[in-house]
## 1
Amino acid sequence: MEKSRLYELFRRWAEKLGWWALSVPIFVKILGIGLLTTVLFGTVAFYQIRMGMLRTHYQIHGEAALSLATSLAGRLEPLVESTNSSGMNVEVNRTMGEFPDVRYIVVQNAQSDILSHGFTFPKEAPADLLGNDGDLCAACHAALSPMEIPVDLLETSPNAELSSGRLRAYARHEGLILEVTVPIGSGRLGAVRLGVGDKIIAREMGSITRSLAISLTLCMVVGLSLAGFLASVLARPIRDLVQATQRLREGDFAVRAKVFSLDEIGHLAEAFNRMAEGLGTYRQAVEEKEAARQMLIGKIVRAQEEERKHVARELHDQLGQMLSKTLLTVDSACSSCENRQTQCAEISSDIRAMIDEVRLLAWNVRPSILDDYGLNRALEQYIGETAKRVGFALDYQSVIPPGAERFASPEVEATLYRIAQEAITNIIRHANATQASVILMCRESEIVLLVEDNGAGFDMKKGESPRALGLMGMRERTALVGGELKIDSEYGKGTTVRVRIPLKSGEALGLQTGLENDGY
């Protein structure tokens, strides 16, 4: 169970790391690939070249030591046969003097006894030449101090093979010692053991290493420069294309991406430009159709309002007057009738009810107060009359400049009145609210209408049915006067309808001044 949790945790971290690596900019990706490739190639090449050069140098160095030891063994053969120790010391010292890289030379007989090592003690001789309880050649030297015994000389595997003779390698703190063993007189007289150090090799390898490091550094700089140039060449058109896409998303259909080349990115930029051109043409066509639709809807709404006004006037002036005349005639006839019938009072009452219904119908079709006194008085009377007929608390509030009864054009006033009327109708039919309010605010540059209720509300994401047609009409009316309508609703939390209509500069003041001149 613990292993599965660790595996799942590791997998999630690996996915996050992979997603982060894939999410870095393209410039960083290309530069990182170039850097990784250059460093990896440079490291491998540096290691291979250095190891090859090192093996070659050790091979050459070992062959040189073998040649020197073979020559010395030939010169020492008669001296060993005659047991000429001083002559052997002279040859050993002369060889060490002529070749400074030689660290020690030891001449042994067939029984591995030391015959000569020169006139000086070879402090770098290997440990197997120590004898007599830690003394080297105790017969001709005093006892050795602990500092003179080469305890830091460790045998290691040689990196070269010689054409003949025997090769051994010793590692010291100061470097490596190669020892070659060459027989004297076919081995019957003994052998010469010659050890050479690698100071010359180290010096040469240091120089070669510095040259390689400088060369590889230059190659890395050139590689990274080329990678950076390639990254900028690839990232610049992509960045320009992204910026063009952002501007296109914001509605700038005139934007065009620069075509830097004719590669795949260039073809993508050309396709984007064609798409932007097509979208611009489509948007222009849509705007023309929308303008025509708005103009048509505006004409329909204005014609509807004019027809409403005409119908309301006809209802009030014609039908209302006729009913009033009929009422007077009935009342006059009933009062002069000798045998007054009981139905006379009922007829009079019914005619009065019909007159009230006609007046209410005329008011609903087009309130005359809206044309005569403006939106504020019309809403105040409409909300007051409606509050008497509904079963919930309904109030109206207005925040307008003092004395400004008319603060917008008749078209704007009619639009706001119809929206408030439609919103109140929706509340009565669908909201099941216990409280609702209508607020009208006139500011310096805009008019704001708020209609709120604490009713059932509805889900905006699932559509607005059965209120869809009403809300759609409200949006259309708002758009006709250049306004903005926003509806906030949620199940169980009521609905808020917010209408904001901007006013043209000086519109409210001009209307107010005109009304003052007309005596309002």
## 2
Amino acid sequence: MKLPRTPYSDGIGNAYQDRFNGLNHNLGAGDGELFDMRNLTSDYFPLMATRPRRLRYKTLERPGGLFSWDGLAWVDGDGFYYKGERKGDVTPGQKTFAALGAYIVIWPDKAFFNVDSGEFGSLEAAWSGESLTFTNGKLFEEDAEANAIQASGVNWADWFKAGDAVTIEGCTKHPENNKAPVIREIDGDKLYFYEYIFTLDGDEGTTPYTETGALTIKRTAPDLLYLCENENRLWGCDRTTIYSSKLGDIFNWNVYEGLDTDSYAVDTGSAGPFTACVSFLGYPVFFKEDHIYKVYGSAPSNFEVMGSATMGVAPGSGLSPAIAGETLFYLSTAGIMAYSGGVPQPVGQAFGLTRQKNAVGGSDGLKYYVSLEDGEGRKTCVYDTQRDVWHIEDESRFTHFVRWAGNLYGLNDRGEVWILGGAVDPPEEAEPEAPVEWMAEFGDIVEGSPNKKGIAKILLRLELEDGATAEGWMRFDSAGDWIRVNGTLQEGVKRSYYLPLVPRRADHYRIRLTGTGGCKVYALTRQYYDGSELKSLPGRQ
């Protein structure tokens, strides 16, 4: 027969933890998961560790944006700067950037900067006057009829170039000459187009005549909200329409000649405005709140816009898309999504029921950084694509992220440009921030038992940098103040510490660690003893 087993132990249980899995802001957070945190990182996963100190590279007085293309570029007040030097004038305010070849473009100013020549100017050009002569001219060194515009004393090369599509307005004698043809050649004060493109006087329509009044010839670009570069074209969108520039030409958005190099525009026809665009997996991808559109094809003749009704980018989060670990991440109205070209998948479950908005994203290549708002305020959070864990850094409000020379730069709303994460060969003028304050709060701990239990002691194995501090805190049954756990933690060494505390029964409890400066937690051991079923009744200690 079997005899009952008599326990000879003192009833003390040990719960050993040496894997810390990042954020889980849900009530069901398990062992090793943190319900809340501040300034932690996954760099030393599975250890729990504080993030590296950021480096402040520069402070702008009136920040308008940050970009990188063969060097860092930014807008400060009414100036555009490249590699620290002012290159041109812009209007103050937030900017959207893209680049093609040697050109950086700046919207909504529709300005450009050539990083090779140093030229700064406008993508648009406009001439206005009171007299234009429509006449016969030349084309490819041969005489041509009804294809020229002449304005005495005007050097058209100061305004336009061959290949530009220009809009002619103000013609009243022959209103049919108000059109948008493409310039074929420029000869001093004459613009040459294709033959018979204009209506002239005379029975055969080839007798020169002069238009008078308020006349304009201009090259225009659309009012884009979002833009990107893809396959040697600039792509962008306003609220309803997708646009592409002429192949390899940032200046022309209205060239429609039936050629593979033409510009392109299409209206998707679906409800709601566009909220973002990005180049991903070789395609320009455009987002609405509840749609994703991908443009297939290699030329306007075979461009095809394919849309899918799925979770797109949330309004106000047009700068949240960023590629990390070959996956595109962005904020939707349902939370952070991971998009690999098919159906986007949610990856923001760690945030629990909190809803996010107004996100700005960036990437260091493998981690997705996002500055967003939720019901608790502004947060900068990091998703590690290799380890599938989230960490919260701090309350910084970043407006732009860019990657340059192996480092991730972030511009915040105070105008500070920071290097985030582990810096690689940072600029000499970059200064480290002060030691950061950090916090790690574990979820409810019940030790796998429905009964009340008593916590006897905590043992920590950790390492503090020189000058760093750390403290332990506990809270019982989600009530009352946090109680500091006694014990001295020594800086500059890696060792285990015994933190004694007054035993107290509780249904559940939480542990919080706080400190300032660098810290790595290798292991956490809890010693506890389990109570009886009767002692789990309300009000019983």
## 3
Amino acid sequence: MKKILISDKLAEAGINYLNQQADSGIQIHIETGLNEEQLCNIIGEYDALLIRSDTKVTKKVLEAAKNLKLIGRAGIGVDNVDIPMATEMGVIVMNTPDANATTTAELAIAHMMSLSRRLPAADRSVRAGKWERTLVGAEIAHKTLGIVGFGTIGRIASTRGLGLRMDVIAYDPFVAPEIYAEYGVESVSLDELVSRADYITLHCPLIEKTKNLIGAAQFAKMKKGARIINCARGGLIDEKALYDALKSGQCAGAALDVYENEPPVGSPLLELDNIVFTPHLGASTSEAQVAVSVEIARQAVLFLKTGEAVNALNLPRVSAEELNKSHDFMNLATKLGKILAGMANQPITKVEVALFGRAAEAAVRPVSVSALVGILSEQVSTPVNRVNAENIAKRQGIALIESTCKDSPDYVSLIKVTAHCADKSITLSGALLGGRQPRLVCINHFDIEVVPEGTLIVTHHDDRPGVISAISTVLGNANINITRMQVSTADVKDQAMAVISVSEPVPEAIMQQICNLTPVINAKQINI
């Protein structure tokens, strides 16, 4: 008998589906509103735990979960689950990342309509006994909709916009050109998007690179009278800059479903009339509640019956023996992937992973998927791991090609990872020093030995005296310590490459100073 505990409220359809599995040896128990201690007292007898956002699956809970094999989150966010501890305890964590995508996209479109026709103001006017037919709105047909983030939700929003006869443009540096073509959407830079769009809707994750993605500089570039909608994550928009833009009229209106602080108590935005608020309702439709509940119920049953883990976030797909044999190569591949992602200036359309020498004796799939994990880990909101990396890559339009060769002329074992972009490719080679210590040993045609850890600055520059001194001076003036440095030349005439390890992340302004040095062709900062 497999026992499932449901500790948050799930839609009745999901409960009914689980009850229908009784003949398959699956038994459910519903106990909501449990605190940590209460959950710890009962979790030990269950094989699976199904939750929403209220239940906190902490280290203490997991230590008490002696029989637990699965945590199923009905929804996308897993901030309430200690995933590293779950992994350590051998507990699979899965979610339902796409079940509420339509609902969230439709809320963004609803906000766009509301802003265009000033519906909240019109409602307040009628309720106050007024009849203000001077509340003039705007048509959306033939206007330009700019979508920031072209994942599942952004793509659904694009189809709705096209159906409303809008011109749709999108910015997402991690989506391949053919995906945009498939949806009939024009791919543009962020600067072009904010300058062309009449309506901007955000559908990207909140990560370090997207924090305050829309700030004062972007509002200044917008058409006067453009409108902005955020149903994704609080923190994507600099709320002070938004206030200033709304107050000045540079931005005609805004609609927010998410906020830097939730609820936004005391926010000056609450004082403005040209902004619409909703209380994080992105997934709050009856259809979405049913969809996430039924989907997580199906996934849990499938896993308990067959062992197949759909949308798992932390499950290796190979045997423990194969994983142990591949472990060091997988670690190296992940580091190479992170460096590749940091060096690529364009969307990656294809990744090639080749194993040479003794590396070819390891299982190639865990190594190649680990490279994808490194490439994708800072690009999407869903936690990326060896289980979901292939599906995410496919969704982003990235093809994976694998190969092995028993010969390795220069190293006992070698891994090459190549990222193909629209008009160029980048190849990184890595080896294990002493069979254990990861090293980056080649960037394209530049032979170089680098410890791939911490913060790295990778420069491509003219090979002439004084370049490294100039870069070092910029870092020194910023009080940033250089811990390691490797410089390489190649057959490319008069060009060189340097990889500089620094003691701390380098501010963007300092990186810009390095890029502005005349001999520097380009410079990238990569955090591993």
## 4
Amino acid sequence: MIKTKTILPSILIFLAILVFLNLVSISIFTRIDLSQGQIYSLSRASKQTVKSLADRLVIKAYFSKNLPGEYADARRYTQDLLSEYQAYSRGKLRFEFIDPSDENTLKEEARKNQISPVQMRVIENDKFEIREVYMGLAFLYQDKTESIPLIQNTRGLEYDITSTIKRITAQGLKKIAFFQPEEESIPQVPNMPAQAEEFSTVRQLLTESYEVSIIDLKTELEASVAALFFAGVKDSLSQQQLYNLDQFIMKGGNVLFFQDRVDANIQQQSAKNIESNLFDLLTHYGIYIKSNLVTDAQCGQVQIQRMQGIFRMVTPVSYPLFPIVNKVNKDNVIVKNLDQMQFIFTSEIDTTRTGDNLQFEPLLFSSNNSGEVKAPRYDINVNQYMNTNLKMMLLDESKVLAGIYTGTFRSYFADRKDYPDALLENSEARILLLTDREFIEDAGASSVKGNLDFVLNAVDYMAAESTLIEIRSRETEFKPLREISSNAKKSVKWVNILFPSLLLILFGIIRYRNELKRRKIIGELYE
């Protein structure tokens, strides 16, 4: 009876503590995330976004209950993520899960909220069937609606949700001017996308966060333009175009240049320098691009056809003029967490001749097994790299392929009497240079995720919208295995083979000796 009286108050106090902690957890939410990069908890930018909501935001998660097994985790992950958003929103964000599969009214509601069902092939109980499922999010804020129509892969979902929240709650999107060469300056190739679609992937991504306008630089840029995206040229600009570009910079405008120094064609196995007055402008500022093509042992492959007897064989060849880049400036937010990127015929930025009034911050580098193909004779023939140890051939140190210039830019038209109204200089502008136009082309390397992440991060940075950068790339860090010598590989192999056996033998010896001691002690006790 005494024990019961003693235990009962302790149980009641324990239950009271549990209830108190649950009540506190409703208003105070925290999570300890020990993963590298803390990829399983909300970033600071996401927390700040929902904390600063001015009005109530409702997220309707349209998810079918009968999802195929491989997508069940997507539903759970989405629910956990939305719970965190709700906890940090101070009561301004609410979410609910809805299964519209069996109710026509809910199906109609999902359709109005821009969520449509998708058909998936499912094998269940040894039976194949086509199942119609919902896996999307609708965001309702004031009188506006945005959606994420389909969530198949949860990677990058936090970025999608936070960017959607920022978009739907924004009073107005920042403006980006997108310059690309005129259609008539570049010949159209049959059965290839028209020039207007040459950068459609990049432009489409930019329109999700910015108001993008395509310009020809024949007129003065609006003062409201946050950054100019310059998609490279293969010819000279008119004086008016050059003047408008120069004066945009003199007004403190930020420019992203994706500009080749060499025009190379792998089909024709030919390359030549691009002759453009754009390089005169850049040189005047103190920006120099070498007349070379960078080669790298860490590179992509091309397919070449060879005749072997009467058969035509396709052989993959590592082609060092297509560098794969994962060496980045870890101190810069644009690139510090980026995955690998693909370049196609790129040149080296000459960092030894940077203008006296400029500061240069490198962003991307080739690997430590680099080289170059020099002007004037650019030998880009693929056959020379067949059956070749590129690491033995390419022994130069890494080369700079992208970077940011800041400092004082003096106008290219400062001493021109025919341009008396030209602004003379500016120290607030920034220029980002990447020496590869194909990096952003639909027919080039724009489908590579690392390339797209770089473009979006760079635009956010130059347009002063850097809050989303840490979210976009926090899950994309590329960590290749460290290269080791062949002798080291053999050592690791034999350690893996012998160490477990030696460990087992040692354990057996120790166990045997302990058993002998135990028997000796028992024998002494009964003697």
